[in-house]
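Hi V.,

You were right to ask for the full record rather than a summary. Here it is.
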Amino acid sequence: MSYQFTFPISKFKALIVITYLFVGTMAFATSVADPNIKFTEANKLYAEAKYREAIEVYNELIKSDHLSAEIYYNLGNANYKLDEIAAAILNYEKALKLKPDFEDAIFNLKLANQKTIDKIDHLPELFIDSAYKNFVRSRTVESWAFYTIGLIFIALLLLISYLLSGNVLIKKSGFYGGLLFLLFGLFCWFMASENQKIINQSTEAIIFAKSITVKSEPNESSLKLFTLHEGTKVNVLDFHENWAKIKIPNGNVGWITKKDLEVI
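Predicted structure:
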């Protein structure tokens, strides 16, 4: 007598699905872990004073869209160790764009700026305007948006308690608390909007040329206005072909070639 083994189709399909899920989960875990492995590798190279190699690994992470304030900060540190001041300033600025309250990046940026040649006076600004902009930019757009969602969610919970509860105290607390958290949420939404507006209105860049002459017009034969050096931070007002119109903190405006700067 012979026996034939039959494997139920439903079980076979289930096994295939489980296999795909397992493979997919492992692939996802690998993709998540890989940036962490690369970041650890780059940090190890930095600790061994292999700064050029560390820079290559940090840049690989950035090119793969694995962006974080810590990566830019460590990249800036490696640039600083190699006396690449313009690159160090650029990466510290990028770190602060992602994390405005990053104290180590703020401190190291000050150190790097001390090594630049150009010491430009800033135009006087009203204290209220300056304080307002600093407050708006003390958090990223994403952070303000996160606060908005959280506060509005709490407001909704409190308002639901107002609608459903039969207790007078709970109803009053839910109503007034809900309105209060809703107002806070709207305030954070407004801050996110203002932050994005400041970012859109202000394109900043770092000069990478050792020395460059700023021109009155976007052509080589135009009038020479003033000279800037490596590491100086400028505002970019406009682009025209291979030229960029810039403004420096003291209010002076002129044109330089785009290849001589890197946008933050």
